[in-house]
């Protein structure tokens, strides 16, 4: 059987001299990546009948942008014949150049017809792909990375929706499950409208990333990823009660092992540096097996049962910027409502070690915003206290039902973790953990609206830390617009009077005032968006772009793709 390219290539982790390229093929084979005399030859590994390769180009020139090819058993499969796109480039870092981080979350993969745009809005990843392709056609790179291009694309949560399926994915489930009933799957009784098994996750990822424009974008822009709840299931790990209730479903063990195993392959492996992959406790075992399905399943189940057994968070140093990408889902400690943690003990210690100075900018990305609108922060803190029994055991059950019903599960619902991070950030800004950075910036998504919040220490001697900007930058969604009613409620939550009222309620429940004081400085904005954080020396600024459907003359063709028109939504200087 001749092998072909099923998904990818995807340009993932890069350094000054290396570039990681991930692919999925449709049969075992040797994958080669070739760029300007540099070559990586890697045999595929197999998991549950699916075949993957992680290729590492080495000894590349710093700050380069080299066209590359992917070959399978010597045959070029990328670029595709007669491709209309500019060549895909293997990019490396230039630590002396400005750093540009594109970021966003919540991407619903569907078509681009007028009907799809009316339901989900314009796809911001596609809009960026078309913009970048046009820019490269106008100014073809000469081997060096263009100054205005993104250093990294950060996809911070809900890259796939395993519990909100498009019609094509529903049809796949119907057909694949009908064929698999005789293999014993029927006993799991999976829900009809959610993915459960590994082959279903593999198809979900394929459908999410096979769109031609997005596929090209991911092949040519270095990308880092974090999962959020919908990559596994809505409200994943909200509480100990949630974990116990979901585990009663006979299909859940299949779902969590498949979801975590697929995430490790499709998203996490590409986040790792060559040294980190070499030291990964799972990869060596996977490479040693003819089909490593059982190895991956065993690893995934252990990661679910013992979150401290594997670290999903990762750190990247880019020039004078330290980027820390924090897992806020799998590593949670939710067994005891009276001592919850957004992170487990080892993960908390690891994050604390990253929160130091001696950098120009400290950027902390997590799928969930660290600083929420003030009313939401106090509501979540109050709810956590009630669920822990501060107002008596009779209210713990209603408190838990409220927590799950309205998603009270952000950093502010984990006060112990929130306070630990706030304390570390204040000390960083005060110069107690090395020379203070120009900024400490939190990046977040999840909430389906975007905003900028600026913060300062409360009662800690603000003049001593005034040289460091502390801010929360949120960009969400990339494509999955918020229902109108929810948007109205979030606007109310942003009012100062609402925040004051809910803060009083939290104090009655014994919640301590946070060490940080903050307010929304810009936004909230609703609709699909993609943000760009630019860091140049000690200077930092952020911009949000949105897009509208092309206003071509005449009625839209219901079958034709709508072309997006990107527009700047807002721009704010953060430092400098």
TrEMBL record:
<feature type="domain" description="PhoD-like phosphatase metallophosphatase">
    <location>
        <begin position="147"/>
        <end position="480"/>
    </location>
</feature>
<dbReference type="InterPro" id="IPR029052">
    <property type="entry name" value="Metallo-depent_PP-like"/>
</dbReference>
<dbReference type="InterPro" id="IPR018946">
    <property type="entry name" value="PhoD-like_MPP"/>
</dbReference>
<dbReference type="InterPro" id="IPR038607">
    <property type="entry name" value="PhoD-like_sf"/>
</dbReference>
<dbReference type="Pfam" id="PF25077">
    <property type="entry name" value="DUF7800"/>
</dbReference>
<protein>
    <submittedName>
        <fullName>Alkaline phosphatase family protein</fullName>
    </submittedName>
</protein>
<feature type="compositionally biased region" description="Basic and acidic residues">
    <location>
        <begin position="560"/>
        <end position="576"/>
    </location>
</feature>
<feature type="region of interest" description="Disordered">
    <location>
        <begin position="549"/>
        <end position="576"/>
    </location>
</feature>
<dbReference type="Pfam" id="PF09423">
    <property type="entry name" value="PhoD"/>
</dbReference>
<feature type="domain" description="DUF7800">
    <location>
        <begin position="3"/>
        <end position="88"/>
    </location>
</feature>
<dbReference type="InterPro" id="IPR056702">
    <property type="entry name" value="DUF7800"/>
</dbReference>
